Amino acid sequence: MSTAAPITLPPSAGTRAWAWLTDQGAAIGIIVLIFVLWEVLTRALSVPVYILPTPSVIFVKIYTDLGLLMENTWATAQEVLLGFGLSVVVGIPLAVAIVYSRLFERVAFPLMVSLQTVPKVALAPILVMWFGYGILPKVLVAFLISFFPIVMNTVIGMRSTEKEMIYLVQSMGAGDLQTFVKVRLPKALPSIFGGLKVGIGQAVIGAVVGEFIAAEKGLGYLQLIAQVRLDTPLLFASVVLLSLMGVLLFNIVAWVERLVIPWHRQITEQTE
Amino acid sequence: MNVTRRGFFLSGLLAAVALSVASGPATAQAVAAKEKVQVRFTWKLKGEYAPLFVALDKGYFAAEGLDVTLAEGQGAQTVLRLIAAGTENIGYGPAVAAAQAVSQGMPVTVAALYQTKAPMGVISFPDVPLTGPKDLEGKRIGISVGETFTDMLEPFTKINNVDLSKITRIQMDNSARTSQFLSRNVDVMSVYLSNELPVLEKKTGVKFNVMRVSNHGLNLLGASYYVSSEFAKQKPEVLRKLLKATAKGYQDAMKDPKGAAQIMGKHMRVKEDPAVLVAQVRATVESTNAPAGKPVGWQEEAQWKNQLNLLMTTGAIKERKDLKLYYTNEFLK
Fold first, then answer.
1. Neighbours of B16 (CB within 10 A)
2. Do domains B35-117+221-332 and B120-216 have the same CATH topology?
3. Under a CB-based contact definition with an 8 Å cutoff, are residues B103 and B217 in contact?
4. CB A129 to CB B71 under 8 A?
């Protein structure tokens, strides 16, 4: 006797939108409330615009200076992406080497940890002195600040593979490469993506730190100019764009994660 | 199956990132016969730099056979270090910073000096009386490490018989000084009349009390060209041409500050208020070092001696090197 599974129809667009709204409604409501309070209070207390502009002034600034803001957002985005890309390209193979070689682990780990504990804002002026005002110092700061979480999470992920699992595939004749590709790597992917999500946010911070020290463009550069010119709306507009860029990049990584490891999402949703 | 396909996707993604790292945006530069020269300012574009932009805009550099790029920088110390390291050759900023760099043994020198009395001042809100240095007593001032007036406060009070212990000095980050002043958490603040003051007055609509420090015995060497000693040895002709064209830019700006401000505004990617620019350019040209019968930017031994003495008393420099290392008029001849 077999029982037929209940037929579920895909939800209509209207129901989906409603579901989304009930899901996110509280969050959106609070954000709107904060903006309204901010607007009302700054107007009521007549706070000068150079101390704290109202949200409406900031949005108007974003609208009127959109070209300038986008140009500088793009400059920062390039630094972030290159720095983050470098972290991935260097960090993941480095993590693999650490997992597979005890000697390498002993050599690389102390170096990495000591590098990690140095505030990157202290390294940035040195990098600028060596590499000048181009894109390279910013990319390197973004890289230095974002590669540690990527390496650490990859190492933890790869070490989390159960020994039994490895023995099992080895007993079935799998070589080192096959064990890596079929067991260790897939097992480590959720953890790797955890590291990438932390890393992308760090890369944004790194690029801006680099721009604060020496830059001719970028959102950090724009912030400095806005600050010396007392153009507080532009200062806030840069922060808004920076934050939007960070959220967007984070979501891109999360989206790639869902594409690459759909099973992980199912597991986490089941446990929720 | 799924796992490997996704795995491929991941490696594809990594490869794409790697490729984008490797290729980057290629900037093809047109081949020009003119000598390429880059001048690195010590700060973001502002009205003080207008004379150089006049020279650029009116083709004075080009007429000398130079293809000049005027680039923004971030702080005199960084620019001087880049020049000392050989990453860059020419900078434009306060000569005081160069004096410190030379004293530390950096291979840089000042090739022209455009301000012998930097237009620095101390300001207060109209309701806070500030007519002379003595008024500083009993006031709160924001100070920050590395900021010029912070370093000069002690000699300034000494010259003017002011009791330093009666001034409340509040240590803060340089970027916080303006906001602390505007929120009235400090009473007085030091500014450059050719830079921050016009911005502050425009944004707040307040006409501040201004005490110009050079009226009270504190003369600081201001805007100047820094050059690497190596470059000066290798390409003296280039420097001569650069200074000649810059002098023409200065002369034009002195004759027509408004026109110079307009030209400056044209070259700013982040636009500045035209009225602010005009005020900045005016304050700049009023303090320009254009001695009669000498080229604009000409330096006198006495000026440098006094400056180094002052810096020695403040402790800003520890060692006084041979005067010839600090400056040269060689390229103005």
1. 11
2. yes
3. no
4. no
B/e letters for A211-244, b = 16+ CB within 10 Å, e = fewer, are: bbbbbbbbbbbbbbbbbebbbbbbbbbbebbbee
Q: Which residues of A touch B175 (CB under 8 A)?
A: 227
What CATH architecture does domain B120-216 belong to? 3-Layer(aba) Sandwich (3.40)
Please name which of A158, A162, A149 lies closest in space to residue A198, comparing C-alpha atoms. A149
| Separation in Å, CA of B332 to nearest CA in chain A | 29
pLDDT above 90 for B26: no
The partner residue sitting opposite A132, judged by closest CB among B4, B21, B82, is B82
Residue A60 structure tokens = 């108007």
Residues in B closer than 8 angstroms to A128, CB to CB, are 78, 82
> What angle separates helix B274-286 from helix B196-204, to the nearest 10 degrees?
150
Nearest CA in chain A to B20: A82
Domain B35-117+221-332 belongs to what topology?
D-Maltodextrin-Binding Protein; domain 2 (3.40.190)
**DSSP for B8-67, written as a single string:** HHHHHHHHHHHHHHHH----PPPP-SSEEEEEEESSS--GGGHHHHHHHHTTHHHHTTEE
What predicted TM-score, i.e. pTM, was given to this entire model? 0.80
* Interface touch B87/A88, C-beta < 8 Å: no
Q: State the Cα–Cα distance between residues B79 and B226, nearest whole angstrom.
A: 9
* Residue in B closest to A69 by C-alpha: B270
Closest alpha carbon within chain B to A66: B270
Contact B193, B210 (CB under 8 A): yes
Of residues B9, B21, B24, nearest to A89 (C-beta): B21
| Tokens standing for residue B16 | 């794409």
Q: How does pLDDT run along chain A (272 residues), one tens digit per residue?
A: 445 556 666 667 778 888 888 888 888 899 999 999 999 999 999 888 888 999 999 999 999 999 999 999 999 999 999 999 999 999 999 999 999 888 988 998 889 889 889 988 888 888 888 888 889 999 999 999 999 999 999 999 999 888 888 889 888 888 888 888 888 899 899 999 999 999 999 999 999 999 988 888 999 999 988 988 888 999 999 999 999 999 999 999 999 999 998 877 666 655 55
Domain chopping of chain B, boundaries:
35-117+221-332, 120-216
Strands across the sheet containing B35-41: B66-71, B35-41, B90-94, B223-228, B108-113
| Closest listed residue to residue B321, CA positions, set B304, B300, B302, B298 | B304
* CA distance, residue A229 to nearest chain B CA (Å): 6
ipTM of the complex: 0.71
